[in-house]
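Archive entry. Fields below.
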Amino acid sequence: MEYWLPVIWFGVIGFGALMYVLLDGFVLGLGILAPFAEDEHQLDHMMNTAAPIWDGNETWLVLGGAGLLAAFPKAYALILSALYLPVLLMLVALVFRGVAFEFRFKAERSKPLWGGAFALGSLCAAFWQGVILGAIVEGMPLQEGKYVGGMVDFYSPFSMLTGAAVVFGYALLGASWLILKTEGELQKTARTLARPLVLVVVVFIGLVSAWLPFLDSRIMARWFDTGNFWWLSPVPLLVLVVAFALWRAAMAHGRDARPFLLTMSLFVLGFAGLVLGMWPFIVPPSLTLWQAASPPSSQGFVLVGLVVLLPVILGYTWWSYRVFAGKVASDSGYH
Amino acid sequence: MDALLLSRIQFGFVISFHILFPAFTIGLASWLAFIEWRWLRTKDDLWRDLYFFWLKIFAVSFGMGVVSGIVMSFQFGTNWAVLSEKAGNILGPLLSYEVLTAFFLEASFLGVMLFGWKKVSDKLHFFATLMVAIGTMISTFWIISANSWMQTPQGYSLDAQGVFYPESWWAIVFNPSFPYRLAHMVLAAFITTCFVIGGVSAWYLRRGVHVEAGKRMLKHAVAFAAIAVPLQIFVGDLHGLNVREYQPTKLAAMEAHWRSEPPGHGVPLILFAVPNEREERNDYEVAIPKLGSLILTHTLDGDIQPLTAVPRDERPPVAPVFYAFRIMVGLGMAMLLLTLASLWAWRRKTLFTSRWILDGWRVLAPSGFIALLAGWYVVEIGRQPYVVYGLLRTADAVSPNIVAAAVLSSLIIYAAAYAFVFGAGIWYLGKLLHKGPVKQPPKDTEGGEKTPARPLSLPDESIDGGAA
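PREDICTED_STRUCTURE:
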């Protein structure tokens, strides 16, 4: 158990983070694409596709935070205090994005203001999430388990690259979500945006992947050193295959769910690559998951609840998506 | 100012803002469940109109609670890294259970509650409302448990580095102060909402608008307050006895009780004083002899542990705890008086016409929020200088790597963002309340799920337009 519990929890946190990236990713993507809405009415339409579910999607982030504190308190303390400023800016951006959903539909004269808050909040939240991801992957200088870096160490060319990559990745998720959930003009706009976004995202995936082995944290480098390279070699190939299918699906009428599913696959591939690359570190390059883990009495206690509750949560989440399944009409109203 | 003090100010600021919204929505969710149940039973359209009216208020408040809550779930890591490292083994699982049992439940069913009126059956919609209400309760359970454990820790062991390890989860969750504090907080949330409902109703009645709705809501508010306010005073008294047993220094600060009284003398109840920490006494004290003993020990000559029983560096700041406690109790007494007066007016059939009663409700409409914040200040300032009572000092819990300049920037950013966002939110809430309940169109049963949901309330949706 001493060995396996932290491994299971590494998987759980990874799953939670992936769920967050996929689910809130497309909602943040809607915000990033908001400037492409032709008018307030079209922005209403975009936001209405996510209005009933955004809150649940964002909850995966809270689960990630609380789960990290429960299972890897050292990593929680280290990552959040070391990345103080990017975390702050991400949270404030999420505040604006979140309230925009409620306020925009209640406002009239100030409607454009909250549309702007939605767009800018989403863009900044996505960017800072990418920066946080990049900074973790790059690694943190630790001495005897304590962070010894500065408060702006998160800033680096690599973290700026991952920040931009996440923005475009979420935009692609948002565009393919719109293809799934809308019809008419808005769907056409989404299709037109999807293709260039696929290209940009593939380029970003390529750049980030090529950079990884050269980072100080030597993420991935291990894979190349030990000959495990062949295990990973299908991943880039799969990325290209999925991207090509996505390029075609973006314009294929009648199969509106396909672009969204393919974009999600693209994210799963990229995410799996990164998480496998981090192994066995939770804070590269020196804190392993076993060093950061809480005792089995803590990890086991929550795991029992997780095993029972996660299927229930996934069940009613699925049900709430079912309730709002199908195309969202452009005049569908808020509560 | 150093990073520690700034971090404390920041935490106090973001948590104070946050707690207002959950406290309000805990009560509102149950109120909505009650209203929808009444509508299902009676099919009286006024209930349905009231449901949609309070639903909009709920949506805005809940949204603000969610976004300010996400900030909270990361504060422990950004500013209180040592607390997270040392107590994460215990606090982390409690917060995780809150997310797993409450947050997902609330979030998923909230979507159906807000947008599913025409997509699901009436009963299923009521079920969604009920799930949201239950979710708010479960959430309160876990967060109060975590906070109570920090007040009265048990069921743990400590290693040489001062890291807490769970030994008995039962003992941790049901720690000695937990039952009292859970009951006190749930009642506080209900009473807060109750006085908003009553205050808004009184405002309508005074303005002569929404008279039917106002009468109905005011009656329910008075009836509820008649049960909840006395009950809260009773629970508060039990809670006080619990504090006397487990956190005597906090109690001494609440009462500004500096020295032991001579035997048989009894502790006075101090009505007003200016606590003088340097000289360890009170200035300008106005007190009633023996009443303190009667309230705190339920005897006429019982003594409580004085502040001077512990060294200065073990004492909380006395004045804020002393004053906050008096504000909370004073408001509680005002609520009790108004409730009794309202019952009397109800009997004399002047409840809806008495200017005094209606204005009393209008004035006390925000009293729950103020009392709630004051109560939390008693709790949180009163436990200083510890964050885990008696075991981990607040000064030792702050993140070691953060610098004052960064915390000052974050404090300014939070303050500016919250002022803007929550200022706007409270403005919109005010507009919605001003506008009041609106007649809802009957539920369109034709077409079923394929029909795009018509805007339920499009005409009354915009509230900063002119026509309100």
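CURATOR_NOTE: Residues 4-33 of chain A form the longest helix (30 residues).
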